[in-house]
Amino acid sequence: MAQMIQLLLFLIAFLSGFFFLWKLPLIKQAKGGGLPASVSVIIPARDEETSLPKLLASLNGQSLDIKEIIVVDDESEDRTVEIAEEYDAVVLSTRESEYSVAGKSSACWLGAQHAKGDYLAFMDSDTQCAHKHAFKDILAQFKRNGDTGLLSIQPYHVIQSFYETLSIVPNIIVLAGLNRYTFFNKRIPERGAFGPFLFVKADEYFKLGGHEATLYTHMDGLAMADLYQKEDYPVTVYGGKNSIHFRMYPEGLQQLIQGWTKSFTYGAKVTHPMVMLSIMLWVTSTYLLLTGFIDGLLRSDVSYVFIILVGYLLHAVQFRWLMKKVGRFPWWTMLFSFIYISAFLLLYLWAVIQVYLLKKVKWRGREYKS
Which residues of the chain have pLDDT under 50? Predict the structure, then answer.
């Protein structure tokens, strides 16, 4: 009887993994010739000498003629400014800002105030265009959406080092947490957007207050989505596999921990209870398999151990299906979901300690009060 209950719980937990990230829309390829547009790209940058060249090179190679590329230097201490100038970008400094608040939103607002384009694209320095037609496709998608509102893309994660595989589960959870991709489609209220890539019309952006309204948060994607939704502007969010890629936290494990710490608990605030429940159930599935396997071994129940191993194989295939939605990760990681889910839980616990007990989050040499 206990074994049947355990298997039933695993089945429920396993099916939950299909619920919260059922279908992730991607930017579709533009049809026909180029579209008339005036696009300004704004890049907030703080100590980004490693990532910035890849982004600027990908922007300079776009088939869509980008009006201007604005790099807003946020008090960098490396070669960020020199690199931006080498790629003929317009360089601004947050020291020119009228606001005492430092950080990404302040840099984005400063860049927007100097931009001349009819459309504004805000890109994190660690992103890059997936191919030369990326902006052409994004603009076409925006126009298909009614040429209004906020278009956001969660970049597709492409890794280079082993430690970066620790971002597999966080990437999955962050996407699921917006309530946009469930099996129920739009029947659950959708919330939030992703700060690494935001695309808007300039006139609407300034009418709503833009990043000036998000100065006191480091989760600008969530704040911008709330800003647009409150005024009944559409917010659409896409996966970046066909358009925008990034390499998250290339500077090492410490940067990865700090980066995810600042994202987890704030993102959880917008997650619908039903989606949160499905995520929690899915997380338990790997532990149900582990306890079942140990139980079968202790009782020398070969048939039950075999059933558990079949369940583990199914879970591994599902894990691979989920991770391919969010990034390009080694195939063998699908066999170690227990390790990656456990790492996620430890990261989340540390985020809770930082945000709710220590009341501060550290990022890029700055401390943000929670």
Answer: none
